[in-house]
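Homework help board

Subject: predicted structure for assignment chain

Our instructor gave us this sequence and asked us to write out the predicted structure in token form, then describe one feature. I got the tokens but I'm not sure how to describe them. Can anyone check?
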Amino acid sequence: MSNNQVDTYGWQSSSGPESCGYITPEVLRILGTLNVNHVCDLGSGNGALVGALHGAGYRVAGVEYDKEGFEIAKKNYPHSNFYNMGVQDDPAPLLASEAEAFDAVVSTEVIEHLFSPHLLPIFAGKILRTGGYLVISTPYHGYLKNLALAVFNKWDTHHTPLWHGGHIKFWSRDTLTQLLEGNGFKVIAFHGAGRLPWLWKSMILVARVA
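My token output:
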């Protein structure tokens, strides 16, 4: 880590994180309703979601800042293009390589790790076609879940500061909507993922280029 920026998140294999089990099926279902083909996974980690999207028939590329995750993805998912860059970078090389803008950008469990989260929708907007979609997930926070965390004394676990490269932003539906709509998008749908309604593990917002 240098200059207060995390350079590696500890990727060691091509196995997807636990969250893939409940987020990936919902992302695939949502994309199936949007009539899209060319998809970018922004913050693609070790490439597990890119592999699932490719398997579902999408033309997909992955963008990952972590060099270790990028190398694992490139090795294990050679059918797709991967780019070692972050949301702070100029996406021009990505667009030049892909030859056309994307129909949809997917970003799962990434924005809670970013010091400057507004850069994510800005980057996404630059690589999307007119009317393109951003499908973004992050851990869910709402009144009932927050209350349950307090009642069962889980705040130290949920908000642990001991996770290197862990969560530094905690989003509600309202705050994530404000971020997206303040940076070029219009939110058109909300979905919960994992666990019971209103106690969801994550939430997924679908937004369209405004």
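Reply (TA_rk): Your tokens look well-formed. For the description, you could write something like this. The chain is about 35% helix and 25% strand. That's the kind of observation they're looking for.
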